Predict the structure.
Amino acid sequence: MEKFEKFSGVVAAIDRPNIDTDAIIPKQYLKSIKRSGFGINLFDDWRYLDPGEPGQDHSERRLNPDFVLNRDPCKHAQILLARENFACGSSREHAVWALMDFGIKVVIAPSFADIFYNNSFKNGLLPIALDSGLVDQLFNEFEANEGYLLGIDLEKQVVVDANGIEMEFDLDEFRKYCLLNGFDDIGLTMQYAETIKAFERKYYQNMPWLN
Amino acid sequence: MKMAKTLYDKIWEMHEVRRDDDGTGLLYIDRHLVHEVTSPQAFEGLEIAQRSLWRKRSILAVPDHNVPTTGLEHGITDPVARLQVDTLNQNCDKYELTEFKMGDVRQGIVHVIGPEQGATLPGMTVVCGDSHTSTHGAFAALAFGIGTSEVEHVMATQCLIQKKSRNMRVTVDGAVADGITAKDIVLHIIGVIGTAGGTGCTIEFTGEAITNLSMEGRMTVCNMTIEAGARAGLIACDQTTLDYIRGRPFSPQDETWDQAVACWSDLHSDPGALFDREVVIDASDIAPQVTWGTSPEMVCSVRQNIPDPAREQDPIKAGGMQTALDYMGLEANMPFDQVIVDKIFIGSCTNSRIEDLRAAAAVIKGRKIADSIKLAMVVPGSGLIKQQAEDEGLDRIFIEAGFEWREPGCSMCLGMNADQLKPGERCASTSNRNFEGRQGQGGRTHLVSPAMAAAAAVEGHFVDVREI
Ligand code: SF4
């Protein structure tokens, strides 16, 4: 995993609560056995006017001109702004892969669905939960300013707007540490291999029917 | 005095390998269910990092999402889907994992076959790269969906890095009225607490209406816990649980059975255990439910009219309601018996077990589907359920009424195979998600119980099943 560095990026906003992972990456694209290449189908049903299938040349399809990610400069967005319960529904990690493949590094919303939230960190995507009042403000700013930019400083745990105003966000220490260092969870857990083995010996002694 | 613990606390403690000062724990995983959609990238990851599988026999694999439900003799004709199923087969063969391949009578939806085989046991931790893993919580097992990176993590280490969630309890007090099913109970709960109502929590379901349910019904309730925002749902272990598990292929046998039962007797929340959040629901309030929007919380009794956004105070919510009504092609205040249905889908890990099929068949028996219905299909949850239903003659009842009797799989629950809605088509579905496009682009899904889906098939529109 790459280290998460401080950056400033273009914001795209989608003003809907409960955006589900089916909307983020529709089912037909889950047939892939790869981790990459999902960006072109991010929000596929909203992004294109005609239906899409895996394997087709998506650059030939008709883009929905009203959809935010089709407009300049939002088509280069690195930060996605959304409403509560973002990415509810299916556990598909493809939703995270699609967002990242498109170029999104941060999603800001009042709340996230648990599985998506968890999946994000495993791939270096940062989900930032901000108070819904603050999110309202960001939506207003986004509407009022074309090419709206925000800065993200993970080390300091702040979102910074154009006026230098800092909005703090909460983050679990362990997750922050992994993101900043680009650590892979499996490698970290493997350090405890002996502890796991010791646990197992006792465990299966007490519950032999599970062995 | 011993501290009173919740069921969740107990299962967590049994499985905690270690814990960091900040509360991040390493949780041991007993059962890992695997299917074709969320596993290929995990197997690939292991290979790239040259890691081996920690405990192969914890894995039970099955293809379900992509499998066709007709014409199995032709195999999978969609080459992309076929590659995914082939990849699962190859991975399972290579690592010598237990897999029920297509054509095996034990094949079916991953959340149906786990319990059916006795592979889901009380007190276990059960994971799968699928959000409806919550289903297995019906057995007092801590069961939740994980992403593909975590699938790889469990394969490599038999553990997950987790922080404890909060404890929430939903009590459904009293008994439900006749004709009210587990699906109505859980849809009603979601309507009350909302799709984010359980976020960050494990929900334990208790109360007379819950303990009265069969294991099939309990699985339906826990299945949709994820639609209430909670990754895991739990129901305490009792005699109903034991009766279901006993004698299944993966269940403990002989003297280990008695040992296991003794251990499982503690799998309930202690009296006085504290929950971070409590919701109490009166069972007598529950009527047959139908969803009207594009989120499972957009649900009401079939006896009510379609809700009116104009009566919603919160402008964001009202906007969301209107967007949903527009997508669904519905007018505010319309009665449900004017909502004409095109397709009927009885299946999915929510409602494809034998009891579900019996409930639908009881409504259909001796009747025909309405002329306006373009397609009505029954997709049993596993090959074994299909066989049992056929032994009971249920397939004849469905076929004579005009239903198609299909092969097991996820099917039109998410339409990864050919079973899909066309744009604008309206479906009475026993599945769990009514999201935009879930059953096919532009498709309109109404979530209902099997009996309600059967009633809609007969009448051609929604109707209170108790009145036909
Ligand atoms: S039946 Fe539907 S919800 Fe259940 S596992 Fe299959 S696709 Fe997921």
About this structure: The CA atoms of residues 80 and 107 of chain A lie 5 Å apart. The mean pLDDT of chain A is 95. Residues B 64-65, 109, 111, 130, 132, 348-349, 410, 413-414, 431-432 surround iron/sulfur cluster (CB under 6 Å).
